[in-house]
């Protein structure tokens, strides 16, 4: 006998749509909350599993480690692209992140690009990464200790410039200007609107004329930018002997099994995919980690000791990063509490029963894995699951965690291809920032609030940065 999956009360004609539509419903949603907040609130109310009727589809939401461990099985469940991610296809079509599993371009792009994201290749990008980090350090040093910075904005500049330089040898130069470059704001507006569109019933879409026009205009700005980059590279290929970037690999690469290459259209989709996936998540992660460190003096003290003893005042290098276990634990713990890509969606390949024989789920059902709730499951992490404690992420303890307890980079075939890139970049940035600066919360009483685009980031988080004695 299976158990009925719990569901919040529904409204006539609207099902549970209003539970997730902050812009439509002040009744069911808390003012100002985004969709991801709404899911977190529902998880606290309904526990490990609940379903929502969203008229066009039903969503089954899973929040416990036990359920997620069961869903993390490529033989029984596979990724499905719905909601905000389906809207993102309006820009990046069958690029790696948003491709439906059966679309042939996913397998081709995956084959061609896997070697480009191997740890060894990413190490070759270290100097370009350091170049961009030095621009961030210079900006904060020039500001002096009284100027207020929004780390989320500056980390976004940094992550954008880094992925553009490493993936396509293009300098966005975001640190040169006070305002955010047009391409960057077009992308941010596009991602926010993709989230909003996914929360609105389809039949209301024509009413949002102004937003629709802006949405189309932003898509054009970004697609034109990527097309120009490809045309320029074709006219002016990188000279042989120069190291190849991701754009070269996509233009020249062939699937070793089929001999097929990528079309220009798919290369545009993947370039834009890297710009989205490569900046949103990493900049959010850097911002959350900075916040957690400023709120946890003991962890900051221990990290600082490690940085000082390993790097001294030398510029942070790859060799240094390999010798900093506490830094690694800090990054893992930050991604546990605030996984910046907080949900993924899977579907069963046949009718299934999950939860130890408890819940029946049908073939093609849409099941959301809520990584934030799952990574705070007290069954795995104890009663202090909501606290920032990097010690539980040091290698020895980490190795003893149950399988799938820590999953900020997704799972299996469709797990994050950019993980080594993000890890190297984030380690370099955090070690360099805390080596050089004493950071302070600009508003000492600030407590974490988040904002959502496709991912989550801290909202209204402001700091001041004072150079440490003896650093310049
Ligand atoms: C996929 C997280 C950085 C490129 C994913 C997924 C997650 C994730 C959870 C799986 C999504 C799903 O199942 O629907 C993160 C986090 C990052 C990060 C937390 C940083 C802290 C990056 C970077 C890049 C990147 C730097 C590129 C340079 C991708 C791509 C996919 C992906 C292309 C789709 C892979 C596929 O389906 O074949 N990422 N990511 N990510 N990520 Fe990342």
Automatic annotation (TrEMBL):
The chain holds residues 1 to 472 of 1080 of the full protein. This is Bifunctional P-450/NADPH-P450 reductase. The lineage of its organism: Eukaryota, Fungi, Dikarya, Basidiomycota, Agaricomycotina. Heme binds at residue 416. It comes from the Eukaryota. In the N-terminal section; belongs to the cytochrome P450 family.
